[in-house]
Design goal:
61% helix, single chain
């Protein structure tokens, strides 16, 4: 079935769908040179003309200052973005930029639902109010590495070290048009590796599919659902058997029985034993922990 899907998505079709995406990507690459709207507030009269020229240039690029890095899209462009990025994700699952574009262009209603669930939970509400960010400026990686074995922070450190990952690798949000949902999307993206650590799943295809089932059931994000449904098509025979006999049912149980993971303030649990954290969150331990096998797949 996977081969049929790949044949149906020809290079020509992908290129046609992604013509607009290339334009958006060229714009996106220019965005980091810009500051936020606060830049204009602090300019003096001497460089006011330069500031106005900068603002005019940003308007030409379609950068509307809804939030730093936002790229506005019309309904037609969002459909085109979703179709093109979905095609590219099937063609090359390692394209994290296309995966992010797919998640942002299709996740509006799911993000609203996630935010509502977070607002009804005391910890989730705190997360939305404080908006913690996970990167090397906010997390002391060396400190996590110094924690005792078996703690959640040390397990996360092992995950990053073993697979060569960095918290800085998560891309910023560009295509979410509701400012209230921007952080929700970013938070989902940034805790992905923490969920891997909590579940004990490596970032190979089987581990990613397992995590995606948990995320799909809990968040309802179309990106997660598509990855959970089509990801198994790329599994080899041995992993397909493990997936069907063991990990599919386990991931569904985890998703339904565990605490809503978007309401977990993971940063406050570094020193806690991971076994205790799993028990507190009602996360069933993996039946047979996976070892690192195959090529790591990036599915934010």
């Amino acid at each position: 079935m996977a081969a049929v899907i790949r044949r149906c998505i020809s290079r020509g079709a992908i290129n046609a769908n992604l013509r607009h995406l290339r334009k958006i990507e060229s714009i996106r690459r220019k965005l980091p040179c810009f500051t936020s709207h606060r830049y204009v507030s602090f300019v003096n009269e001497e460089n006011l003309d330069e500031a106005k020229e900068t603002e005019d240039y940003k308007k030409q690029l379609g950068y509307d200052e809804l939030y730093t890095g936002h790229i506005p899209t019309t309904p037609f462009q969002r459909v085109l973005l979703a179709l093109g990025s979905a095609a590219m994700c099937l063609y090359n699952p390692a394209r994290d930029d296309m995966i992010c574009a797919l998640g942002e262009s299709t996740g509006y209603y799911a993000l609203k639902n996630i935010r509502s669930k977070m607002l009804t939970d005391s910890v989730g509400k705190q997360i939305l109010e404080e908006q913690p960010v996970i990167n090397t400026e906010t997390i002391n990686i060396n400190y996590l590495g110094s924690l005792p074995e078996g703690t959640f922070g040390k397990e996360y450190w092992h995950f990053l070290d073993n697979y060569g990952f960095s918290p800085d690798a998560r891309l910023p949000v560009h295509f979410v048009d509701d400012p209230d949902l921007v952080y929700v999307m970013l938070r989902y993206r940034q805790i992905h590796d923490l969920v891997h650590t909590l579940l004990g799943m490596p970032p190979n295809m089987l581990g990613e599919v397992t995590v995606k089932w948990v995320e799909a059931i809990q968040t309802g994000l179309p990106l997660c659902t598509l990855a959970a449904l089509f990801g198994p098509l790329r599994l080899g025979p041995k992993h397909q058997q493990k997936y069907l006999n063991t990990y599919l049912s386990w991931s569904i149980r985890c998703a339904k029985n565990a605490k809503f993971l978007m309401n977990v303030y993971f940063e406050k649990h570094w020193e806690q034993e991971i076994s205790d954290l799993r028990r507190d969150l009602n996360v069933e331990p993996a039946p047979v922990p996976l070892k690192r096998t195959g090529k790591k797949i990036v599915i934010p």
